[in-house]
Amino acid sequence: MKLIYIAQEEWEQGYLKDKLAAAGWETAFYAAGDSAALAGDPDAEALSIFITTHIGAAELDKFPKLKLIATRSTGFDHIDLEEAKKRGVAIASVPSYGINTVAEFAFALILALARRICEAHNRVTNTGSFSQDGLRGFDLAGKTIGIVGTGHIGVHAIKMAKGFDMNVLAFDAFQKEGLDKELGFTYVPLNELLNTSDIVTLHVPYNPHTHHLINKDNIHEFKKGAYLVNTARGAVVETEALVAGLMDKTLAGAGLDVLEEEGDMQDEARLFSLPHPREEELKTTLANHYLIDHPRVLVTAHVAFDTQEAIERILDTTLENVVAFGKGAPQNVLAPKV
Question: Which residue from 164, 188, 248, 252 could staple onto 140, CB 3.0 to 4.6 Å apart?
Answer without folding.
Answer: 164
